[in-house]
């Protein structure tokens, strides 16, 4: 039986130390009908030349060089150039098991699914495996769009496109939002409606290389990634979508909105918690207006409720105390 073409899109930026391992893991796939698009997003360290060298080794690799515009713009360029019936995405510092795409294509062929997901693990810079962010299912499972959305709202699901193989037709009129972080979550919510659900496989075939200095893993405590702003915006979008399409999960969505704001408030530097920061003020207003939901929501833990109530009442003092506590604990 003829193998449908899979396009694997890899955004690349200043990643000399990891790129070769990543690309080799994709080239080694047992599903051989691949095209691999390396999108060099304005690299300045020689990564662009390495992309060209890798393309000379394997005819399935195509390279595109563009001015720096961020991961979403690189992915979007790849989507526009893709010829495959299915699209996969791999981050350039990660790597995958050789059977990953074959396993997902088998599910697509047998079950007619439009989105199939494998499970993932995380490897630290010290080479040690980290705790699972998402617990893999014990066996393959299909979650319809509402059920999958619920797992995301409860922080039990995986919104990353890197762990998924997706029907390319779902991207026909859709792209990743550029200039924003947490972009996978936003786009996936749009695709879920049309896709009707996600097939999830238990095998941890995608390996995330967890490295300091990425968008949400800053070494300097005074750094504040805009991802913490974007996750709040996406929480509002998720609540709107839930209300319109899946009202049975409104309490889960309410929990998500509060949790994302708690994450924001626990990361914003105290120095930025001031009257000039309109977004910060709006987050605090939201928490104060939703005290009843905070107290009664069954999906919040006792610790989360306590922090939300304290931060709503006295955000700067509580945040300052939290920062001192984290320093004492060495975090």
UniProtKB/TrEMBL annotation:
CDD domains per the UniProt record, alphabetical: Glyco_tranf_GTA_type
Name used for this protein in its record: Glycosyltransferase
One Pfam family recorded for the sequence: Glycos_transf_2
UniProt KW keywords: Glycosyltransferase, Transferase
UniProt cross-references to SUPFAM superfamilies, sorted A to Z: Nucleotide-diphospho-sugar transferases
Organism, as annotated: Candidatus Eisenbergiella stercorigallinarum
Keyword Iron carried by entry: no
InterPro entries listed in its UniProt record: Glyco_trans_2-like (IPR001173), Nucleotide-diphossugar_trans (IPR029044)
GO molecular function (one): glycosyltransferase activity
């Amino acid at each position: 039986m003829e193998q449908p073409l899979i396009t694997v899109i890899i955004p690349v930026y200043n990643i000399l130390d990891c790129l070769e391992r990543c690309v080799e893991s994709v080239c080694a796939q047992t599903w051989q009908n691949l095209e691999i698009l390396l999108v060099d997003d304005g690299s300045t360290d020689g990564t662009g030349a390495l992309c060209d060298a890798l393309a000379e080794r394997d005819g399935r690799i195509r390279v595109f060089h563009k001015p720096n515009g961020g991961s979403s713009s690189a992915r979007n360029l790849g989507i526009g150039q893709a010829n495959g019936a299915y699209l996969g995405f791999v981050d350039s510092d990660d790597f995958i098991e050789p059977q990953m795409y074959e396993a997902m294509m088998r599910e697509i062929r047998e079950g007619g699914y439009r989105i199939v997901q494998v499970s993932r693990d995380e490897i630290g810079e010290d080479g040690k495996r980290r705790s699972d962010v998402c617990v893999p299912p014990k066996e393959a499972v299909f979650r319809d769009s509402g059920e999958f959305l619920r797992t995301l709202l409860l922080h039990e699901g995986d919104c990353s496109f890197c762990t998924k193989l997706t029907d390319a037709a779902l991207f026909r009129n859709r792209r990743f939002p550029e200039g924003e972080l947490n972009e996978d979550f936003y786009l996936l919510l749009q695709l879920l409606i049309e896709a009707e659900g996600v097939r999830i496989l238990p095998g941890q075939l995608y390996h995330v290389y967890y490295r300091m200095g990425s968008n949400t893993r800053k070494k300097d405590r005074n750094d504040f990634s805009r991802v913490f702003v974007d996750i709040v915006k996406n929480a509002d979008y998720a609540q709107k979508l839930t209300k319109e399409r899946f009202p049975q999960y409104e309490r889960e969505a309410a929990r998500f909105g509060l949790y994302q704001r708690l994450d924001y408030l626990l990361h914003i530097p105290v120095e930025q918690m001031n009257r000039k920061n309109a977004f910060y003020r709006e987050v605090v207003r939201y928490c104060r207006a939703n005290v009843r939901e905070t107290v009664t929501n069954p999906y919040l833990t006792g610790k989360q409720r306590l922090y939300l109530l304290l931060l709503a009442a006295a955000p700067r003092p509580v945040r300052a105390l939290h920062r001192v506590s984290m320093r004492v604990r060495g975090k």
